[in-house]
Structure formats: structure tokens, C-alpha cells
Design a protein that fits this description.
The chain is of the alpha+beta class and about 550 residues long. The chain contains 20 helices and eleven strands. The longest helix is centred in the middle third of the chain and has 37 residues, at about 290-325.
């Protein structure tokens, strides 16, 4: 009998990326945590970090993504139930997030005197969501619902204990009978999209103080949540309402799920279309003031857009460096080859800048820096989220054809990459909101300028970029046409200020030379010679067990 050749006994293969810690093992994220909080805060996330990089958590993410939720509109007897069924691993992801304080818990912790509650949560969010981003949406919505509900104290008293709990309980149960609650949001409609004032859902007041809502929501996130903030029209104008899935008497609210969206990415999470037909809700804030009320939620969800994009960039960078450190070609490891070092270093600079700015925004929330957060958050949401698809695409190329294959995990990151740039206002909406934030209050620009001033004089390229920004702002004509230029430059200046103050000279110099000094090509991997690429890549490497 002929002997078969051992064609599959091959070398030069990259081992699985498991046993790493996306929190403590990420030098940039760990430094930001200690800088804006303290070492005990970082240590409190140790178990979560180890779990996030484990084979178990990665399996949860992979399987949950490959088994999207299913809509069950009716039971076997034909009764309307409007339920969504998730894979058990999705619940494992959600339970871990909630139990580790990544949902609404920081608001209660802050009230109890924790000065770093939001930084802790942000660092944990960046590390944990690298396992799978799909469950981040309901985690974020639950976090963001709390400040909006606080506009109406009696509603906050009813729902906040559940939203800030660290207990995860799935299923439609009367809110008072559950220790933990999850929140969702329904704002947009077919005819309006981001123009929420075009909503045609109407609300009618009832004698008991509640309202009955009738209309359609084109995008309702996480439809199996316990309660939702939605917009509807009153005679006074667009108003905000809280709509529970189960009413206080234990009966189910009218919440007709029409279909689940078939999305590019974020596939483990459910997004739906919903019909309201006399659906019960309660007014949040004042009549006709729905947009300001919902903005309380949107400003917080935008923070998570930045955090989530930073996490996606970091996950892609980790995969790219891991591959380059273990794969050889043309007689040397990829990570030791000059051009690959340039690419990896450029990716690392992008990741460090995104992470530094994201955690700075969370620190602003802890410190009550509302003016800074209003403008810096909008600019960061525009720029960091906009950069993510290009960064993930370049990381995919590091793996070559292997990166284009589902098993590598990069295609999942690539499909996820555009989401945060669209969610809570796509590019034009956010760029115009940057102008709006500056136009409505001089305090916002003053707060951001003060942050930039902290790095003035450290690097001439940074100083010149800040001058260009002020020149753009000083030219009053065609501001809306130039909104993207302004938003992007503002974000870059904020990132430059942070890197110049806190990052190693090699990282700060590479950032200033490329992003601010003009010595940057149309693609990543074009850092100027002498950028210390090897040092930058080494700083970005995450140890594995």
C-alpha cells in the first residue's frame, strides 16, 4: 500500500490568539485607566480582562454572531407574543457585562461616592466588547437611559433601581418583579430617519396620567428590553416617553414586532421595526421637549460609540500584531520587516489616539465637565468612528488571505466597523452637531480650547494645527459646508494634546508628523522614516499566555 505524504504537517502557522488580557495587557488602556482613575480601579477589572481574552469568551462571541436572534411573533396556538429568541451564548455575554457594571451601575456607584465609576466602566467596556460587539447595544442603552429618566424623578424612582442593578434577568416580566432591567430606544421612522421632528407617532393623554401611543418605529434597538425611550408627537411638539414591555398590572403592553433587521454586522443583536397601537407610555420631561430629553440619552450613547470604535480598532490591531509576530516570509518574521513595521506602527498610533480620547471623555463624565463632553464627544464620535473601517481593513490585509476568511475573526470586525459611525447620527449629522455645540454655548469651545492649551508649546506641528482650527472657526462663511473639516481637525487636535502629554515621544512624534504635520499618505503605513516604528509596535503588543 502506498504511503501518503504528510502534506498537512506544516510550520509557520500562527497560534490561536487566546489567553491575553485586553484590559491590563493593553498598555495604553491600562495607563489611561490609572491616569484618569487609579490603580485599584484597574485591578478591579482583572477578572473581566482575563475572561475577555479567554478561549471561552471568544467562543461565546463567535457562536452568538453565527446564530442571530429569531423573531417569534406568535405562539403555537396563534396568540401574539412578539418575542425574540437569542442564542444562550449571547445571554452569557450580556450577563457578564451587566454583572461587571458595564450597564447602568456606574450611575448608582457615582451617587454612592465612586469618583471613577464612569472611567472604570469605560475601560471595562473597551476590553470586554472585544469578545463580541453585538451585545454592546443593549448594554449601552441601559447605561444611557438613566440620565434621561432623571428628568422625571417619579419615573427614575420606578425604573432606576433595576437599570443600575448588576443582575441580568431576561424575559418579559413586570418591572417591579425583576431585579435587573435592560433598556432600548426607538426614535427614527421611515419618513424621517435622523430628522426625528418628522416623526408621525402620536400620543394621547389618559386620565391616569399615562399616554397611548400610535405609530411606527423604523429602528428599535434591542426589542426584548424591558423598557424603551421613544419619541412621539403631542400638540406641544415632539415629546419623549418611556414605554415598558410589561405594564405595572402584569399585562403585556402593545408592542408589535414587524420584523428584525437583516444587518451588515452586529448580527448577534436584534434590531427591529415596531408598531404601536394604543401602546402605553409615560411622559419623560416636559411636553414638546422630547428632543432635549432624548439628547440626554444620545450624548451618553455617543460616548459608547467612541468606546466601541476604540475597542474594534484595538481588537483588529491585536490580531494584526499577533499574526505578524508569529508569521515569517522572505526569511524574516513579518513584525521585523520594515514596511510591515510601518503599517503596524501606524495602526498602533491610530489605536492609541482613539483609546486616549475615549477614556478622557469618560473622565469628563466623572468630573461633571458637561461643556467639554458636549463638544469633544461629538467631535470624537465623528472622527474616531469614521476612521475605524479603514483601520480594520488595513489590519485585515496584514493577515493577507487568511484575514479575509471568517475563521480569522477579521471579517466580523470589518462588518462591525461602520456601525458606530452611523449609530446615533452618521457623519453629516454629527459634523453639523459639532457646529451646533459650539454655536449654542461659548463654554463648549472654551472647555475644549483649554484642554488643547495644556499641550501648547510642546510641538510646533501641534501648535500650527490648533491655529488652523481657530482660523477655520474664525471664518464664518460656508460653515456647514466645512463642518467635516472642522470636526475632524478638532478631534485630531484633542488627540494630539493627549498624546503629547501622556504618550512616549515616539508615539506623539509619529502622530504629529502624520496626522498634524501633513507628512501622511492617503493610506496607513506611510509614517516618515525614523518614526521609531519598532518601539511603537512593541508598546502596542499584548502578551499572551
Amino acid at each position: 500500500m502506498p504511503i501518503m505524504s504528510a502534506t498537512h504537517e506544516v510550520a509557520n502557522q500562527v497560534p490561536p490568539l487566546t489567553g491575553h488580557d485586553p484590559i491590563a495587557g493593553d498598555t495604553v488602556l491600562a495607563e489611561a485607566c490609572v491616569r484618569h482613575a487609579d490603580a485599584p480601579t484597574l485591578e478591579s477589572l482583572a477578572d473581566l480582562g482575563r475572561l475577555s481574552g479567554s478561549e471561552q469568551a471568544q467562543e461565546w462571541g463567535r457562536v452568538a454572531n453565527e446564530n442571530p436572534p429569531k423573531l417569534r411573533t406568535h405562539d403555537r396556538y396563534g396568540h401574539r407574543i412578539d418575542e425574540v429568541e437569542f442564542h444562550p451564548y449571547w445571554h452569557d455575554l450580556m450577563r457578564t457585562a451587566v454583572e461587571n457594571g458595564l450597564a447602568g451601575e456606574p450611575w448608582a456607584a457615582a451617587d454612592a461616592g465612586d469618583r471613577h465609576a464612569h472611567v472604570r466602566r469605560a475601560v471595562g467596556y473597551v476590553g470586554w466588547t472585544q469578545a463580541e460587539m453585538g451585545h454592546a447595544c443593549p448594554t449601552t442603552m441601559t447605561y444611557a437611559a438613566v440620565p434621561a429618566l432623571r428628568r422625571t424623578p417619579e419615573l427614575a424612582a420606578r425604573y432606576e433601581p433595576g437599570l443600575t442593578a448588576t443582575a441580568y434577568e431576561f424575559g418579559l416580566t413586570e418591572p417591579g418583579g425583576k431585579a435587573g432591567l435592560i433598556a432600548g430606544m426607538g426614535m427614527t421612522e421611515k419618513q424621517g430617519g435622523s430628522d426625528v421632528r418628522a416623526n408621525t407617532t402620536w400620543a394621547a393623554a389618559q386620565p391616569d396620567g399615562s399616554y397611548r401611543l400610535t405609530g411606527h418605529k423604523w429602528f428599535t434597538s434591542a426589542p426584548m428590553s424591558d423598557l424603551f425611550l421613544v419619541l412621539a408627537q403631542l400638540d406641544e411638539g415632539v415629546s419623549c416617553f418611556v414605554v415598558p414591555r410589561v405594564l405595572p398590572d402584569g399585562s403585556r403592553n402593545v408592542f408589535r414586532l414587524q420584523r428584525l433587521k437583516d444587518k451588515l454586522g452586529d448580527r448577534s443583536n436584534a434590531s427591529s421595526e415596531v408598531e404601536f397601537e394604543g401602546t402605553t407610555g409615560w411622559l419623560v420631561g416636559d411636553p414638546g421637549r422630547g428632543v432635549p430629553a432624548i439628547i440626554e440619552m444620545v450624548n451618553t450613547t455617543r460616548l459608547d460609540c467612541v468606546l466601541g470604535s476604540a475597542a474594534t480598532v484595538r481588537a483588529a490591531l491585536t490580531q494584526a500584531i499577533h499574526h505578524a509576530r508569529h508569521r515569517s516570509a522572505f526569511g524574516a518574521r513579518l513584525v521585523d520587516q520594515p514596511l510591515m513595521q510601518n503599517v503596524l506602527a501606524d495602526l498602533a498610533v491610530e489605536s492609541e489616539a482613539a483609546t486616549a480620547l475615549a477614556i478622557r471623555l469618560a473622565a469628563a463624565l466623572d468630573a461633571g465637565e458637561s461643556a467639554f463632553l458636549r463638544l469633544a464627544g461629538a467631535a470624537a464620535k465623528f472622527w474616531v468612528c469614521k476612521r475605524t473601517p479603514a483601520v480594520v481593513g488595513e489590519a485585515m490585509e496584514v493577515l493577507g488571505g487568511n484575514g479575509y476568511v471568517e475563521e480569522s475573526g477579521l471579517p466580523r470586525l470589518y462588518r462591525q466597523a461602520p456601525l458606530n459611525s452611523i449609530w446615533e447620527g452618521s457623519g453629516n449629522v454629527i459634523a453639523l452637531d459639532v457646529l451646533r455645540a459650539m454655536g449654542r454655548s461659548s463654554d463648549t469651545l472654551a472647555a475644549v480650547s483649554a484642554e488643547m492649551e495644556l499641550a501648547r508649546g510642546v510641538d510646533g506641528r501641534f501648535d500650527d494645527a490648533v491655529k488652523r482650527l481657530h482660523a477655520e472657526l474664525g471664518e464664518s462663511e460656508h460653515l456647514p459646508f466645512r463642518a467635516r473639516r472642522i470636526a475632524g481637525l478638532l478631534a485630531l487636535c484633542l488627540q494630539g494634546s493627549l498624546l503629547l502629554r501622556y504618550s512616549p515621544p515616539a508615539v506623539a512624534d509619529a502622530f504629529c508628523a502624520s496626522r498634524l504635520g501633513g507628512d501622511w499618505g492617503a493610506v496607513l503605513g506611510t509614517l516618515p522614516a525614523g518614526s521609531g516604528a519598532d518601539k511603537i509596535v512593541e508598546r502596542a503588543s499584548v502578551p499572551t499566555v
